[in-house]
Specification:
alpha+beta, 4 strands, 50% helix, 119 residues, two-stranded antiparallel sheet, disordered N terminus, 5 helices
Length: 119
């Protein structure tokens, strides 16, 4: 979950994302209007090749919403046997934190490609 960070020089973001949080937010962005718990689980398995349990994604979505990083809307399916779905979208704060996380990762990857190729 996003955590408060202290820094003496003001250069480090005050919040960071964990790996699964980042992947869940990325999956939600990729899926757009169709992002809900099970579709996010499927997207993580398909694109990130990361199997995750539905329960862990649902718990994480609840925490991300409580933190103000995502919003949601509940919709009842048209078919009689379908279950209601809670569709999610990133808030402005969620998009900002995702951008900060991306920047941090890119800075960390910068300049190590040769080292990885040599290994």
């Amino acid at each position: 979950m996003a955590r408060d960070r202290k820094d003496g020089e003001g250069t480090m973001p005050k919040e960071t994302l964990g790996e699964l949080e980042e992947l869940v937010l990325l999956a939600a962005v990729r899926l757009g209007e169709g992002a809900y718990g099970l579709s996010i689980v499927d997207e993580l398995g398909r694109i990130a090749r990361r199997p995750v349990s539905r329960a862990s994604v649902y718990v994480l979505l609840r925490r991300l919403e409580q933190a103000g990083l995502i919003g949601s809307r509940r919709e009842n399916p048209e078919e009689a046997n379908g279950k209601p779905r809670r569709f999610v979208h990133l808030t402005g704060a969620g998009l900002t934190l995702l951008r900060l996380s991306r920047g941090a990762r890119l800075r960390m990857w910068d300049g190590i490609e040769e080292t990885l190729e040599e290994a």
